[in-house]
Amino acid sequence: MLTKLQSIKKLIGHTPLVKLNHLAVSLYSKLEFHNFSGSIKDRAAYNILRAGIENGEINRETTIIESSSGNMAISLAMICKELGLKFIPVIDPNINKMNEAILKLFTKHVYKVQQEDKTGGYLLTRLETVKNLCLENKNAFWTNQYDNPNNYLAYYNTLGLEIAEEFDSLHYVFIAVSSGGTITGISMRLKEKFPNVKIIAVDIEGSVIFGNPPMKRHFSGIGSSKRPSILSNALIDEVIVISHEDAIEGSNKLIKEHGLFTGASSGAVYAAIEVFFKKNPHNLNEKALFICADRGISYLDNIYNSDWINNTLISSSQTIS
Q1: Burial class (CB in 10 A: 0-12, 13-18, 19+), 60
Q2: Which keywords appear in this protein's UniProt record, sorted alphabetically (predicted)?
Q3: What is the mean pLDDT of residues 282-302?
Q4: Please, what CATH class does the domain formed by 1-39+151-302 belong to?
Q5: Is 283 left (phi over 0), alpha (psi -120 to 50) or beta?
Q6: Which regions of the chain carry the CATH code 3.40.50.1100?
Q7: How many degrees, rounded to 5, is the angle at CA 184 between CA 174 and CA 267?
Q8: What is the pLDDT of residues 298-313, one digit of tens each?
Q9: Cα–Cα distance, 202 to 35 (Å, whole number)
Q10: 42-142: in CATH 3.40.50.1100
Q11: Is the full-model pTM beyond 0.85?
């Protein structure tokens, strides 16, 4: 499996860095949808599996199990398929239809929970299901993205390092938060080279990560129903919480203004960039960076669908306002 891992490694990382036209700041983006399975999660999935194989926790008979709303599950499914490993994803009704279809192509068993947890989301129910599946499968390995340090170390050693090498100066970095691995690893690495860089975390309404009250969340890729333990290592200067509506508007602006067809988390981050620079004095020559975590194609059924917006988002605005 280690030989196969090396071939997969060549398909992950060193993603394009592009400069965008922006009135407020010198703005750049890392296009993480150029990774193996199409998202930033390939970095964490690969690193967690690699570590498990190298330390003997994973062998050819091991069943890999993870709770994921989409991208992490797809990354694990595709890498496990290459390695010949069995993978069981635990998903919920908020998963994008296309992501669910992809998982069913790459895995034999997909567990979809239906019961909301006490926060109005599904994460806690998914995690309980994962624990039960681990008990049922004698040789099981839970990748545990919310608590596994190999999640954030993946970004410290790859994406964070790439960014540090690509810039001679950097003033602001905007990162969406979900499992916490990306912002933790990147912030640790970048603060080493750029001590004064401001790390701005971007969250969504209804997420409890930064102590806000739980409410129903309507799309995946950003936010969480629990605070990930690995986030305790993150070096965050400011948090901006974005509404579902502003995340959708941000996604559409990325298309109209920059030709970037991205997922909901990128739209939320772009909306946060506008909020930040309207409130904070800045120099037009300062450099800012944000991450495009995945493509927008998986979101055609929700954030880019006017019927979904009207029937699901606007009709339940009392819930998320």
Answers
A1: exposed
A2: Pyridoxal phosphate, Transferase
A3: 92
A4: alpha beta
A5: beta
A6: 1-39+151-302, 42-142
A7: 30
A8: 999 999 999 999 988 8
A9: 22
A10: yes
A11: yes
